[in-house]
């Protein structure tokens, strides 16, 4: 923790100096600071840090900037949820990861905290691709990737437009929630609303399936009310047509600021002619993430479910 604090203190000091002299926002100044470190303009005043120490320290700086920002899309997936999603990636690709690699796409990358959490945990086992429409956020992701020495292919674009991305083994995404403003693009999707604006989070699910291999997995952080909305029936029909629901898990309430912001985890598997659907969908409530005993029991429950669903 001491090293993380040292890195954060160093980045924060340089960032605040730049914020004053360059008349830029804190987040813009974080970007300039990270570039300065990479270019050798600023030298970190201590010995080499681990990839995780560097990621966590930069994350603290970005979180500080996001709290000062009025941009609703400037949000970060918490480490605890990133590690939880990593656990499920490890479970579904246990055999492959023993001596191979997997490809992962995040179509709403942000600054990459979710992806980099996974990549640091599965170091050297992931071929990663990220798509992000916000220029500042993807620039930050690019600098972070270099500083923590994690290779990632980045695309600065609207992820709901056609992507130059090959189908991947798994998609992970903290879904952007709300209405999608471009009706011309939305009408190309089966999940476009017949009346009024379409839900962006529905379109992201459809687009993610387009770029997932047959039999591949999709792990989403979804609004807790996803299957209760006015367009939920259309989403149900779509998922029944193209995917198998593997799991729906309610996350602990204490993670979120209010009931309005509560999320769940949705795990899908893209249908494949060579595979069969799950025997049973995992419906569970994730315990308080600080309760180690309850978490161990939860993970044991997941393992039993997985074993039962992978029997021939």
Automatic annotation (TrEMBL):
SUPFAM superfamilies on file: S-adenosyl-L-methionine-dependent methyltransferases
Ribosomal protein is among the record's keywords: no
Pfam families named among the record's database cross-references: N6_Mtase
Gene Ontology terms: biological process: methylation
Class of the enzyme per the UniProt entry, highest EC level: transferase
InterPro entries in alphabetical order: DNA_methylase_A-5, DNA_Protect_Modify, S-AdoMet-dep_Ade-MeTrfase_prd, SAM-dependent_MTases_sf
EC number in record: 2.1.1.72
Coiled-coil intervals: none
Keyword Methyltransferase: yes
GO molecular function: DNA binding; N-methyltransferase activity; site-specific DNA-methyltransferase (adenine-specific) activity
Domain of life: Bacteria
Location of the DNA methylase adenine-specific domain: 77-286
Keywords: Methyltransferase, Transferase
Name the record gives this protein: Site-specific DNA-methyltransferase (Adenine-specific)
Organism, as annotated: Ureibacillus thermosphaericus
Origin organism lineage: Bacteria, Bacillati, Bacillota, Bacilli, Bacillales
């Amino acid at each position: 923790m001491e090293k993380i604090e040292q890195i954060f203190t160093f980045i924060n000091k340089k960032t605040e100096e730049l914020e004053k002299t360059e008349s830029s926002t804190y987040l813009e100044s974080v970007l300039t600071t990270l570039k300065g470190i990479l270019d050798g303009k600023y030298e970190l005043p201590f010995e080499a840090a681990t990839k995780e120490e560097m990621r966590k320290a930069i994350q603290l700086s970005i979180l500080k900037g996001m709290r000062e920002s009025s941009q609703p899309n400037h949000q970060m997936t918490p480490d605890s949820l990133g590690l939880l999603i990593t656990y499920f990636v490890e479970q579904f690709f246990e055999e492959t990861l023993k001596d191979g690699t997997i490809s992962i796409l995040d179509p709403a990358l942000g600054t990459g905290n979710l992806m980099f959490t996974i990549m640091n945990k599965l170091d050297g086992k992931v071929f990663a691709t990220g798509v992000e429409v916000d220029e500042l956020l993807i620039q930050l992701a690019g600098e972070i990737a270099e500083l923590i020495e994690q290779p990632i292919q980045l695309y600065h674009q609207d992820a709901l437009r056609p992507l130059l991305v090959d189908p991947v083994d798994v998609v992970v995404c903290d879904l952007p929630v709300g209405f999608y403003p471009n009706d011309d693009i939305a009408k190309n999707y089966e999940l476009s609303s017949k009346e009024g604006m379409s839900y962006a989070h529905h379109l992201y699910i459809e687009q993610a399936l387009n770029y997932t291999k047959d039999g591949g997995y999709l792990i989403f952080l979804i609004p807790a009310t996803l299957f209760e909305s006015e367009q939920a029936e259309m989403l149900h029909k779509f998922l029944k047509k193209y995917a198998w629901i593997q799991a729906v898990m309610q996350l602990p309430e204490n993670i979120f600021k209010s009931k309005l912001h509560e999320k769940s985890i949705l795990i899908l598997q893209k249908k494949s002619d060579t595979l069969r659907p799950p025997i049973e969908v995992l419906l569970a409530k994730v315990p308080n993430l600080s309760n180690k005993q309850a978490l161990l029991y939860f993970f044991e429950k997941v393992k039993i479910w997985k074993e039962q669903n992978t029997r021939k």
